[in-house]
Predict the 3D structure of the following.
Amino acid sequence: MLKMGEMKNLSDMKFETAQSVQLMTEVERRAYADRAKYLGDDDFVKVPVKTLVSDDYLKKRISDFVPGKAGNSVDIKEGIIPESEETTHFDVLDKDGNAVSVTTTLNGWFGSRTVVAGAGFLLNNEMDDFSVKPGVPNMYGAVGQEANAIAPGKRMLSSMTPTIVLKNNMPWIVVGTPGGTTIPTSIYQTLVDIIDFHMTPQDAVNFPKFHHQWLPDEIFVEKDFDKKVIEELKAMGYKISIRDAIGRTEVIMSQDKTITVVADHRGDDAAAGY
Ligand code: DON
């Protein structure tokens, strides 16, 4: 709290003016939202203390403070301490028309951070894809109920959607992407863009994407999404949130004896044709 106040020049404000009380209130709101999410007995849970008191984190945490305007605890939740997403996707199509679409994942950053002794590979943390409790979101914000509850021998729900679309019984579009819950919606958009909107696979991959996953009830859009469309959607009553890149979609398209390969411009992905 002290650091966040300092970052917004609290000491230039006076004792118990509306200005200083407002800033301190907004600082307290954010600290308590973090307490609710991240704090507990550190013999049992990993409390991200280093991050929570770091200048970088706190600068971001207080960056949406608007002087003179009350925040609210519906919009201001705990700060996101990002668990980076560790999935990769690749497609292969050979000269005989054999196609492979592979999505593979550790889920979170270094998976469960556990290396199998002697084998040298990491174990994933896919357990997060189960619904731990009805209504409690996982790291992708996905909520679930009993159908995806943890049980012995049961597989967790996955969003991974490696896809091969056939035409005349031959692979036509081979597509996939990482991106947690944004995977199915990215594949859906890419296919609609190519098939219904007659876009090139390059444009279908590289144009800005959007995503809705029921809860939270908002449309996530990439930052270069058409501003006019955003305003029109807001006028319809949608909540729009701008977020970082959605997926890294790879496509191989085989049409009229021409193979088109596309690697998403969002990452350092690469494509090779023959
Ligand atoms: O199977 C799933 O739905 C998740 N474990 C996928 C995670 C993922 O895509 C992370 N990477 N971008």
Notes: Residues 18-38 form the longest helix (21 residues). The two ends are 58 Å apart (CA to CA). The chain has a mean pLDDT of 94.
